[in-house]
Write a structure and sequence with these properties.
This protein is of the alpha/beta class and about 325 residues long. It contains 10 helices and 12 strands. It binds S-adenosylmethionine (SAM) and iron/sulfur cluster.
Amino acid sequence: MYAAGAENVKRKDYRRMIDNYGRKITYLRLSVTELCNLRCRYCMPENGICLKKREDMLTEEEMISAVRAAARMGINKVRITGGEPLVKKNIISICRNISSIDGIDEVCLTTNGILLPEMAADLKSAGVKRVNISLDTLDPEKFSHITRRNEHTGAMRGLKAALEAGFEKVKINAVLIGGFNDDEIPALAELTVRYPVDVRFIELMPMYDSGDFGKEAYISCSKVVEALPELLPVQPDGGVAELFRLPGAKGNIGLINPVSAHFCGSCSRLRITADGYIKPCLHSPAEFYIKGMNEEEMYGQLIRAVNAKPEWHGEMSAQARSRAGRNMNRIGG
Ligand code: SAM
Ligand code: SF4
């Protein structure tokens, strides 16, 4: 087991960044809550979830210790997610504290946007550099259907607030669902012409208990290229999305293909769930518990998690569901 003295607490150990398949682990997705103000059909059951007790969830101090330990290991980018991170009461303080950790160069956040009008400026002052907003449809009725909440106007206001707050980058994430929003590919893509945003289409993933989508719902992002023949390829930026641009657009179109063409070979991620488990892979059942541990113990668990990263996440389709054992709101998408 790794044992560190006080001086090691400050030292980065870059050897720990490399997993058994030669991948550099530099990116942590930290889920701060399982709760959400929406109930997206692919993410959460209709009646919400069976909540754990508050004392079973990571405290803010534990989250900060975990990120400190991760930064020593070579993590330099943290994405705050959930559940919906903006329903977490102390989210501004969490972002501020994480941004000030030595070695963390970038703090970003993924949100459904609904609470951004009142929080965007504070998030920016707390050090959040980039914001991803989830928006699957521009049609208010379809929005209410997929999220089971009547909040389309709130989400659009959130997008506007993010643009006005002056984040380095704003991206829109749309889960591509056959028979639901594939007819909106041109309209969603057109947002990159109207606003300085990237729009990323993400293939629907068959999570543990994430709705009864039929086979036809699981379509490949190649549909986006078919629907937009004018797309021009763009040099990859090191992220997981395949990039394109519409002529004259202000932002890129990204295709994220976890199902049809996984990007496991270049995976640089670890995840920490709000109830205190490190997940080496989104779709693997392997989990390493850190609740109640000090920074040194968490460091040891992070190393074990890196060593447990599988080579790839295995086959996924409408018939072959993810082996994660949790829905996305309980992992941190
Ligand atoms: N509540 C925030 C939001 O919606 O942006 C953050 C958490 S949410 C779990 C993160 C991302 O996961 C969202 O972009 C959501 O669309 C995506 N997601 C959730 N379930 C998914 C699934 N089954 N397949 C693909 N993407 C999914
Ligand atoms: Fe909430 Fe995000 Fe899941 Fe939708 S995708 S239910 S907004 S956590």
